[in-house]
Structure formats: structure tokens, C-alpha cells
Amino acid sequence: MAAYLDYQSSKPVDPRVIDAMVPYLTTSFGNPSSLHTTGEEAREALEESRETIAGFINADAKDIIFTSGATEANNLALIGFALRNKDKGNHIVTTETEHISIHNIAKYLAKAGFTVTKIPVDEFGKVSVDDLAGSITDETILVSVGYASNEIGTVQAIAEIGETCREKEIAFHSDAVAAGGLLPMDVERDNLSLVSLSSNDIYGPKGLGVLYRKKGVKLIPQVIGGGQEFGLRSGTENIAGIVGMAEAVRIMRQEMAGEVERFKSIRDQLIENILGKIPRSYLNGHPTERLPNNAHFRFDGVEGESLLLTLNARGVMGSTGSACSSKTLEPSHTLLSLGLTHEQAHGSLELTCGRFNKQGDVDTVLEVLPGILERLRKLSPLYDGD
Amino acid sequence: MAAYLDYQSSKPVDPRVIDAMVPYLTTSFGNPSSLHTTGEEAREALEESRETIAGFINADAKDIIFTSGATEANNLALIGFALRNKDKGNHIVTTETEHISIHNIAKYLAKAGFTVTKIPVDEFGKVSVDDLAGSITDETILVSVGYASNEIGTVQAIAEIGETCREKEIAFHSDAVAAGGLLPMDVERDNLSLVSLSSNDIYGPKGLGVLYRKKGVKLIPQVIGGGQEFGLRSGTENIAGIVGMAEAVRIMRQEMAGEVERFKSIRDQLIENILGKIPRSYLNGHPTERLPNNAHFRFDGVEGESLLLTLNARGVMGSTGSACSSKTLEPSHTLLSLGLTHEQAHGSLELTCGRFNKQGDVDTVLEVLPGILERLRKLSPLYDGD
Question: Which of A107, A124, A188, B306 has a 20 to 30 A CA-CA distance from B109?
């Protein structure tokens, strides 16, 4: 078995989640709007799942809107909020290290007449809360800061940013996908108005996400139709997927604490051994305030794509950064925002562990990586020796 | 076992489809943008599935855009097309019997400055191709006509409407959800520019649909992000769902012809027996040009909701019409467009059969329905005798 260390890009669905989903595919498959028994079963499952998922982030069930995934949740949060509240101001604050969907939505809103400020990050990928507070003007209606980076794993000071937004009475959105199931979340503690979550990031099925929308926060729907999800997201509900996400939450509640300790141990073994054994290797992201499962490296004189393909041939699956833009040749905007050069950014390797990793996976990485790097560096015109 | 005759509202997923999906949930679960083996497996599955689904409607694979369902496909088709092509004209033609999502999208476009003409239908729910052709002006950019009604089952003259659109060089969209797996489709024959399809309507999983978009037809994306689906629909691809929809298509190709004959037999037994045995009962929709699985009745002096609930208590699950608006008290816009009064529209019952119905289900309906109607009519102040 190959060592899969790319949990940030995609996760397997937990077999217990599949077991929970199957009855809603085969027997209780009704449309929750239907006035009969299978419709009623679907309706009950929908509302029970909504409760379960709400509880996971200390929210009310009626503030949970099911979407087709985190990207759609980000669209509804930012575009839906900005267009609905444009009479209150036209300024949006976000950061330089957001997921590509946030950046592309921000571009869209800039074309639609909004002003978007992207707060820079320090060399570890942290946003300064003071910088953020200083960027807020009378026109600011929304602050959007990712809970943690999906690439370098740096965790932001969400509660402090939430406090700033509370004082200034500005709505606060967080794309919390990368932190799902890794950091405990609490929308009250963090004063969050809007939160995007993904089902797959907690070992639920793909094609499903959630937007938490605090009571009173007004949005314009982005998918128009039969008026499902409190009129905010139309389309027949994906009940089996929703039940799967709720089951993923139930499992996470029981196992998260122990799991996170195990991830930290794997992460720290990777970081210590790789930085210790491989010359001119560096950690990207924050040394301590980082996701428990994220180890993100750069290696001088190595090209990330060749490294990935060679690692894959030796049974290790990793990432150069965000899978959402892996197929482009552009270096990651997150890595550039740390102040890295294009060459440095291209020499990156992200290893993220998850529920089904074993100690053997760590051993495999530590066994094959040094030799591969040595060989690639020998072939590289960019590398001038240790 | 209860008799489920509400296949139009929701379908179970075929167990063979679930079997095809499981490996993409548990082992080949990679992100198709990832540069490693499980990513590659996902990427191959995505493109193979795209080919399979394209073949089902005689389309090219690169014209298939995966969405989260038919409602989202309708949004991308109509809003995406109208906003992208508004320099060519501001007039859109549709009909009075479209799915609620089309009507609500049309309302949205009307607010955005477009003029929408809704062509009326005759007493059987058919659109006149001459009326439609006559409504086209120099400003018309798009015609949207559902392949068949999801409520009364009436099938429209799609090839003729396509011919009209070809002559006038106007884009032609069809919401083909209700006809999926029931009528053979061919985007070339019908000159379709845009077609919305749903996975669940061919016994695939919910939360997945397709927009066919003919080469050269320009759209503005409605979900912004990482640029998946040719830049037209962002978000990590739901590979297991997509593989499931492709498997549903493979099964459909082998079984559709035989299945449709079986549905017609069930439909015709229901229609003949119910109209024959129950006084003051009528068929809604076209007597012959109707979906092979659709029997849609109205009964004088009966209230549809009470009828449904009583039927359900006796083991028969049906619908009053569109599940998408079952929870509202408004009578169906489709039934009103036939010229029915509110009372007539409220006394409706839709029975739609599907893959897992047995002869026993028909027998159950015919056994319990006459008695229930008799009892309800006795209680009804609206009914004045046979």
C-alpha cells in the first residue's frame, strides 16, 4: 500500500459514513417535500442532520444552509452578502493567503464595484490583527479570513479577528474548510457571521458543504429555484450526502481529540526528521500555530512537480500545495505572499496526514525522500551544492 | 411493502450504481487535480464518465459540465447565457408549464432587465410551435422549453421547436430532467444548445446534474472558484457521484427500451381502470403525447392533500404534482395553465412509476383508491354526487 499524505487535497469517505448513507440511497430515498412516508423519513433525516452539524460549531440548526460544497458556500457568503448589503458600504477586507475561490470571488466583486483590501501576511503566513483592524473603514461591510491555510497550515487568530469585527459591527466570514475536524470551532466564541465548511474535509462525501449564516445576516440566494434551504439555496436536497456529513460529524466528535494527537506526532516526526536530515530544507508556514496534520517544506534546487511524480513512483502521494491549482504552472499565491521567490515556491512539498495513516507511512516517506532529493538535485541546474 | 408511485419526485439509487460508486469513495478518492496515482484514477474516471454521459444524448464529452443538480444547471443555462449574451438582445421565450426553477430564474432575469415571454399551453399542456415562433423578435436570444412536464407528463415538440430556433439562429435550452431515461435524447436532432439533466432522475445519486453546453455557446460561470469544469463551474469534482451517474447511464442504455414498455403498461392500466371505475375522474395532460410512466388525474370534490395522506396510510405513495412546491398551499401553476379552476387543480393525483415497481403495486392502487375517494367525497362539502 502506498503512503497517502495528501489529505488536504481529498479524503476517503469513512466506511461508517457510507453505511449511514446507504439506507437514504435505497429505501428512505424520498423527496423531503413529498407528503408520504419516504418523504417524511427524508425530511426527518434532513432536520436531524442539520441539528447534528449545527452542534459541531455551536450554532443553531436554522442557521445551517446545505450547499454543494465549500466553493459554493464561499460564493453564497461573499457574493450573497456583498450584493445584499451594498447599501451599507462597498469595502471588503480579506487576506493574501485565502483559498483560490475567495480570491476569484473577490476579483468578481471588484468588477462589480466593490473595493477589496487584501491584508498581507508575515513570513509564517500570519495576518496581523492590528493591520486588519487598521484597514477597516466606514465603508467596510465584510471581513473574510480563512480559519487556517489549506496549503501551509498556518492558523489565524480567528477569535481576535472576530472580536475586532464585533467591536466595529462588521460581518465576519471564515472559510473554515482546511481546519474542519482539526480545530474545535465555536461560532459564538469567534463571533462568526458566516462560515464555510466542506463535508469531505471531515471524511464525508464530496459534493456537499455547509454555509453557517448567523441569524439576521442577510444574503441574496445564488442558486434560484424551488426555494429549499430557507429560500437561500434551491435544488432537491441531497439527503444521503447530508446524512453522511452528519455521521462524519458524529464520528469526529468522538474521535477528534485522540486523532489530532496522533496527527501531531506524525507531523512532528516528518518535520524533525526531514529538516534534520536533508540539507537546505525549510519549513513553510508557522512553526507552532499550524494545523496538526500539516507539514509543508521547501527544498532548494528542486522542482516540486518532478519531486511529486518521483515520490509517487516510490509510493508516496503528496502535493505541491493547493490541489485546486495544481494543474497550473503558476506558483502558489500563498507561498509568494510569504516573500518566497518563484524558484523557492516551486520547490515545495506539502504532506498532510489523516485518519487512515499508519506509522509505516511516515517510515516510507523518511526512507525514500532523502535519496530522491539527492538524485533530483544532482540533475538540477538550479542546485549548487549543500 | 408500500407501493411507491412517486418516481417523478425522487428515485432510489440503483444498487449497481452504489457498487460502482464505492471504490471512488474509499480507494480511488483522489482530487483529480492532484499529481499522483489516486488523483490520476479520479481524473480518468471523470473523463470516462463525461464520455459516457455525453454519448447518452449524442453530445461531445467536452460539452458536458457537471453541476450539483438540475436546478443549478438551469441557473447556469439561463442566467449564465442571458448575462453573457445581453449585447445581442434582451428577450427570452419560455412557457407557462416550466419547472418552478425556470419560472423563478425568469423572474430574476426580468428584474435584471430582460423581457420574458411565457407561451401559454393548450388544455393538454402542449405548446404551439407556431405561437412560439410568432413570439420571437429581433431581441430574442434564448428559447427555454422543458422536454416534458414533470407534473402532467405532456411531451413537447422539442425537435420542431429546435428547428424553429435553428432557422432563426436562436439558442435553445431544454430542462430535460423529467424526460431523462424515459425518452431518447439527441442534441443534434433537436438542435439543442443547452440541456439540463439530473443524475437522480436516471437512478443515480442526488446532488449531481449536468448542463450540456454546445460548443461555441458562451456562458458566464455562476459558481466562481478554482476553475474546474472548463472554468464554467468551480468546486472540487464529486467523482463518486459522477461515476454513479455514468453507471446509471450505462444501465439505462441497456434497459431503457424494455423498461419504457413496462412503464407504459403500468401507466395504461392505471389510466384505464381509474377513469373507467371512478365517476367524475379525469386525466390531466395529453392523452397520447405523455411520458410513458406518468398518470395524472383529477377528481371532482376531493382535496389532493387529504387524498395523498389517506393513500399513504393505505400503502400508496403518490404526489399532488411537483414535489418542489408540495409544501405550499398554492395550486400548481402548470395545472392552472391548462385552464383548470383552483378547485379542480387542488383535486389532483400524480402517479409515476419506475424501475422497481411490480404488478402488485398497480393492484394495490386499484384496490384502495376507489374506496378512499368515495369516503373523502362523502365528507366533502364540494362534492354534489356522481
Answer: A107
Nearest to B325 among A4, A226, A325 (CB): A226
Q: Is A226 close to B100, i.e. CB distance below 8 A?
A: yes
Residues of B in contact with A227 (CB under 8 A): 100, 104
Cα–Cα distance list, A37 to A23, A27, B6 (Å):
14, 11, 11
Which residues of A fall within a CB distance of 8 Å from B325?
33, 226
Question: Looking at the structure, do residues A275 and A183 belong to the same domain, yes or no?
Answer: no
pLDDT tens for residues A227-264?
Answer: 999 999 999 999 999 999 999 999 999 999 999 999 99
Q: Which ipTM value was assigned to this complex?
A: 0.95
CB-CB under 8 Å, A317 with B39? yes
Pairing state between β A194-198 and A209-213: antiparallel
Pick among B68, B228, B326 to test the A interface (most A CBs inside 10 A): B68
Q: Is residue A196 domain-resident?
A: yes
pLDDT score, position B343 = 87
Same domain, B203 and B69: yes
- The answer to whether residue B380 is domain-embedded is no
For residue B31 the three cell numbers come to 482530487
CATH of the domain at B316: 3.90.1150.10
Say if residues A330 and A192 touch (Cβ distance below 8 Å): no
Per-residue pLDDT at A327 exceeds 60: no
Is B222's Cβ below 8 Å from some Cβ in A?
yes
Residue given cell 473595493 in the structure block: A115
- For residue A49, with 0-12 CB atoms within 10 Å meaning exposed, 13-18 middle and 19 or more buried, which class applies? buried
A223 in contact with B, Cβ within 8 Å: yes
Q: Which of B220, B324, B368, B372 is catalytic?
A: B324
Mean pLDDT of B364-386: 92
Residue B322 binned pLDDT confidence (cut-offs 50, 70, 90)? low
Of A326, A337, A292, A305, the closest CA to residue A127 belongs to A337
Cα distances (Å, whole numbers) of residue B292 to A198, A306, B5, B250, B268: 39, 56, 13, 20, 9
What average pLDDT does the segment A75-95 reach?
Answer: 98
Amino acid at A174: S
Please return the burial class of A193, using the count of CB atoms within 10 Å of its CB with bins 0-12, 13-18 and 19+.
buried
pLDDT at A350: 97
> Same domain for B66 and B185?
yes
Closest CA relative to residue A302, chosen from A369, A366, A362, A368: A369
Chain A residue with minimal CA distance to B225? A101
- In chain A, which residue ranges form alpha helices assigned H by DSSP? 15-26, 37-56, 70-84, 100-111, 129-135, 158-168, 239-277, 304-313, 333-337, 342-346, 359-379
Please report the pLDDT score of residue B353 as a whole number: 98
Total Cβ atoms within 10 A of residue B327: 15
Burial (CB < 10 A; 0-12, 13-18, 19+), residue B257, is: exposed
Do B27 and B70 reside in the same domain of the chain? Answer: yes
Domain span at residue B43 reads 15-251
| Preferred mutation among A5, A10, A14, A319 to probe B, highest tally of B CBs within 10 A | A10
pLDDT tens, position by position, B100-110: 999 999 999 99
Chain B, 84-103: which have a CB under 8 Å from a chain A CB? 100-101
Among the partner-chain residues B72, B205, B308, the one whose CB lies closest to the CB of A36 is B308
Residues A138 and A166 in one domain: yes
> Is A11's Cβ below 8 Å from some Cβ in B?
yes
Instruction: Tell me which chain A residues have a C-beta less than 8 angstroms from the C-beta of B318.
Output: 36
Type of residue found at B43: R
Contacts of B74 (CB under 8 A, 6+ apart): A225, B99, B101, B102, B105, B175, B196
Domain boundary (B190, B220, B251) is at: B251
Asked whether residue B376 is assigned to any structural domain, the reply reads no
Q: Say if the Cβ atoms of A207 and B12 lie within 8 Å.
A: no
